[in-house]
Fold this protein.
Amino acid sequence: MTHILAICTANICRSPVVEAVLRNRLQAQGLNDWEVSSAGTWATQRRSASEFSVEVVQEREGLDLTRHQSRGLRPPCWPKQTWFCVWNLAMPKRCGRSSLTMPPRCLCSPKWSTTAALTSATRMVARVMGMSKW
């Protein structure tokens, strides 16, 4: 099983949205061998998703984020086959600053960072997320 871990700062806005939407779209495409979760580099444990995130995901995707509980990025919160979905190239450095070792499987959105190299996995995630312009 392949695991995607969406990472943002507090795990209450971006990463919970990606987790919910990506999980739903993977399941809709019959890709049941993918697991999706989220965490934050500076997250306070057990916070709810932001009201805006809950509202947007409900309106645009029909998904419910009201049960989301934030969690911090701490090893071993990911298996070896994890792909990391981050928003900018500074995020792996932040993770490193937290004494974490990031594997080379880091998907970085060029929508936020134009210097990121696109791998086939990044393109696959972008297609599943409906972001064909990545």
Observations:
- The first helix runs from residue 14 to 28.
- The beta strands are 2-8, 34-40, 82-86, 106-108.
- The radius of gyration is 14 Å.
